[in-house]
Amino acid sequence: MKKKILLVDDEPRIAQLLSMRLEAIGYEVFIAHDGVDCVQIALREVPDLILMDIKMPYRDGIGAFEQLIQLDMTRSIPVIFMTAFPTIELKKLALKMGANGFIAKPFTSKEIEQTITMTLENYDRF
User: What pLDDT, on a 0 to 100 scale, did the predictor assign at position 33?
Assistant: First the structure.
């Protein structure tokens, strides 16, 4: 059975390109364009991993993550943050909250694939 990834990014072109790449390597991908949709789709689909941008309208990635970790159905889903504005403070905050990874944009396909693979392998061990 394919692993499910919820991809959350407010830039449709980035979301589409990344989705196509992830589907090409065997993942089932769901797309949300803001933090509100992220939580709704996560509750409906219960993905194996969430790959989420931080800066988004309606609810940013940090706000969506705060909500996800409070809900029984979604609190154990691994989350990897992506951002075009990587600061040490933001990375520390995300990791302190329990995020499983942090990737700065722009990133390579190989970098994102390796981070997802490593996160899912570590998650599958438990």
Answer: 96
Whole-angstrom distance, CA of residue 51 vs CA of residue 103: 10
Task: Name all domains of the chain by residue range, CATH numbers in brackets.
Answer: 4-124 (3.40.50.2300)
Q: Are 90 and 98 in contact (CB under 8 A)?
A: no
Please name every residue paired with 51 in a beta bridge, in sequence order, or none if there are none: 7, 80
Instruction: Write out pLDDT tens, residues 7-41.
Output: 999 999 999 999 999 999 999 999 999 999 999 99
Kindly give the parts of the chain with pLDDT less than 50: 126
CA dihedral 88, 6, 58, 56 (to 10 degrees): 40
Give the other-Cβ count within 10 Å of 72's Cβ: 6
